[in-house]
Amino acid sequence: MAIVLETKDLTKKYGDVIAVDNVSLSVEKGGLFGLLGPNGSGKTTMIKMLTGQTRPTGGSATVLGLDVVQDPVGVRGHVGIIPEQETPPSFLTAMEYLRFVAAVRKIPDIEPKAEWWFDFLDFADKKNVLCKDLSRGTRQKLMFTQAFIHEPALALIDEPLINFDPIMQDVVKDYLAGYVKKGRTIFISTHILEVAEEICSGFAILHKGTLLYTGPVAELAGRNEHLPSFFLSLVRKDRHV
What we know:
By secondary structure, the protein is α/β, with parallel strands linked by helices. It has one domain: P-loop containing nucleotide triphosphate hydrolases (Rossmann fold, 3-Layer(aba) Sandwich), CATH 3.40.50. Helix content is 39%, strand content 27%. Strand 1 and strand 2 form a beta hairpin. The chain is globular. The two termini are 36 Å apart.
């Protein structure tokens, strides 16, 4: 199976603080991979490095065969991204923002594509509303739309279900499952373990910037283990090392 994302000894330091410490992992095409960890474990820093938003201090990473340091713009041009706290420009309407995304990504015929997403995520009544006036949930719908409207081979999502109500969470989970069945790949970071166990095919556990484990979710099921309890046992053990 082809590798679409790979890191080797990837490291990020902020002064004396090591946010990510020599992390090596690989993600195969056609899966939904979850990077799991408590708050402050380095997940968001990993996403930022993998999308060329933050330069690594050491090590290397490739995304869709592109080096994240040598070609960060190329990486962002090929993937879909939903950052943890990114919001659309406040001075544009939702529709104007998607037109802007289409211009940047050179997406043809944006109008029917946008209309499909407005209907699918149930916010067509907000398409002409300024982004600054949208609720958190609606802004999240818009950010989800901009990440997938060009149907990228790989999407990197920081906390994919944040700000969604239970009904919309179910809609999004079904969409993500169908997306990987088409041979595309999704990389998510989350601390919601139950969701990760439900939708992920593979996962890695990050704690204090250190990779504790990586493997398929099915492997845990084969041992009659559940992801939340396995995660907690590793993280609690690591806290006392």
